[in-house]
Amino acid sequence: MLLNGRSLFVAMISISKKNEVYLKIEAEPHVFYELSDEFTFDVPGAKFMPQYRNKYWDGKIRLFNTQTGEIYVGLLDKLVAFCRRYNYEYQFTDNKFYGTPFEENEMVSLEGVGDYMKTITRYEPRPYQIEGVHDALRFNRKLLISPTASGKSMMIYSIVRYMVDKGQDVLLVVPTTSLVEQMFKDFEDYGWDAEKYCHKIYSGKEKYDNRQVTITTWQSIYKLEKKFFSRYGCVIGDEAHLFKSKSLVNIMTKLCDAKYRFGFTGTLDGTQTHKWVLEGLFGPAYKIIRTDELIEKGHLAKLDIKILLIKHNPQKFEAFEEEVQFIIGHEKRNNFIKNLALDLKGNTLILYSRVESHGEVIFNMINNSVTGRKVFFVHGGVDAEHREDIRSITEKEDNAIIVASYGTFSTGINIKNLHNVVFASPSKSRVRNLQSIGRVLRKGNNKTKATLYDIADDTTYGSRKNYTLNHLIERVKIYNEENFNYEIIPIKMRQT
Are residues 69 and 118 in the same domain? Predict the structure, then answer.
């Protein structure tokens, strides 16, 4: 029973660690139901999922288990906030093996972390990087949100080195084989003997090795037995926004003895559900810095966004897929993209969604029309070594064109010498858009400015906006939220 938002019952809630994944809650039954309500969310887009449509699932995610009294350790701060809001008393109970639910390392200081980071790398760490690493190490677990091109690899490296010095085995999980190799090379570039301390796992690589640090794709390990994970005292998840998937949650729950948990991501999808799941797995979110701040401080290239709004004849589409097929199969539109790529100066990245029906078409049109410029085609079937070769070549070029899928190049590929990005396919994903923008923001030799060409399509039929035009509206909201400068340039294109 509630009165003015507060329970009439006086309850004592006991909170202890079951392990490094879950807290164990002891309380009266009515509190369990209140906790269940507090930590239950509607999953965005659930109604479109087969499990929901077939009535196998109610479209909700429950972060508190009423049967076991368990909840993720990383949600401790929200659990405490719940108790205070309902005027419930609570106490922390010590677990002789896992300790207390809340720990703070008071000996970890901002000055000390800064001095340490300066001794382990040949590069000068930036103040916000020091602050992020300090916050992580002080509280043992954290979800660190820092935009693409902010130097996340430096922060990851610093935490890895600190944990190795403490005698901890570290599991570093990344989404792609390209990122495994890139992270390894970054560690070497910072001045570390990565070969001595780091073992790499991806397709075809040996799973077991006694080196302290394992850098792996999640796809390579999520099916492994629990004993594989038992030696790791620290887990770091790069591109942590992906960890909402069942496979990655499975990895995190197998790491039941990993006391130190750190997630890094450039952005979240904007939903409370996504944020709380990731905080539960890693720890409370800490936003290190914004993209516009990095640009203002001169750490990133200045960004211009040109929205090229293609005006088609009015078209009424009954389904999203019908509209997509119209757009990607539009010969004049594809020819427009080709001509745009050929006219742009500097290295240009063209991002697409569909490989055969769109990406391959654009690549062939460009490749058959160009002379004296290198043109590359990248998709999921291109192996990691070849992708790395393309990245390395592009760093030395000043006029190359890369036609790449969002899945392969929107996340984690660092090309400093990239001048233009073209969105050739429609998307409303906050994560995908911000990650993709991040590809072009890194400063390189003689590069201080970057341009995004956001190609959108208007087929408005009467008062009815088409699906992908609504997607553009969502992207514009993102640009406004991030304080990006943009202009909308109408392009007339009539269907013949």
Answer: no
* Within-domain flag for 101: no
CATH of the domain at 390: 3.40.50.300
Query: Which residues have CB under 8 Å from 67's CB, separation 6+?
Result: none
Across the beta sheet with 375-378, what order do the strands follow?
A: 375-378, 401-405, 348-352, 420-423, 449-458, 302-311, 486-492
Burial class (CB in 10 A: 0-12, 13-18, 19+), 265: buried
**Are 284 and 304 contained in the same domain?**
no
Please give the sequence-ordered ranges of beta strands (E in DSSP) within 96-210, or none if there are none: 141-145, 170-174, 198-201
Task: Give me the helix-helix angle, 272-282 and 246-254, nearest 10°.
Answer: 20
- Rounded CA-CA distance 412/410 in Å is 7
Question: Residue 12 is which amino acid?
Answer: M
| Alpha helices (H) in 176-319, listed in sequence order | 177-189, 194-197, 226-229, 246-254, 272-282, 291-296
Q: Other C-beta atoms within 10 Å of 81: how many?
A: 12
Range of the domain at 163: 110-289
CA atoms within 13 A of residue 173's CA, in its CB half-sphere: 27
- Among 266, 289, 312, the domain boundary falls at 289
* Residues 61/41, Cβ–Cβ less than 8 Å: yes
SS (H, E, C) 359-383: HHHHHHHHHCCCCCCCEEEECCCCC
What type of residue sits at position 463?
A: S
The pTM score is 0.83
Residues 334 and 469 in one domain: yes
391's enclosing H/E stretch is helix 384-396
Beta bridge partners of 260: 234
Question: Which uninterrupted H or E stretch holds 157?
Answer: helix 152-165
For the chain, 496 residues long, the average pLDDT of each consecutive 10-residue run is 51 92 95 95 81 84 94 96 93 92 93 97 96 96 90 96 98 90 94 96 89 95 94 94 83 95 87 88 93 89 93 90 93 95 93 92 94 88 76 82 82 72 86 80 78 93 89 91 92 70
Question: Beta partners for 201?
Answer: 216
Contacts of residue 111, defined as CB under 8 A and 6 or more positions apart, other chains included, come to none
Count how many domains the chain has: 3
Q: Say if residue 328 is exposed, middle or buried (CB neighbours under 10 Å; 0-12, 13-18, 19+).
A: buried
Say which DSSP state 388 is in. Answer: H
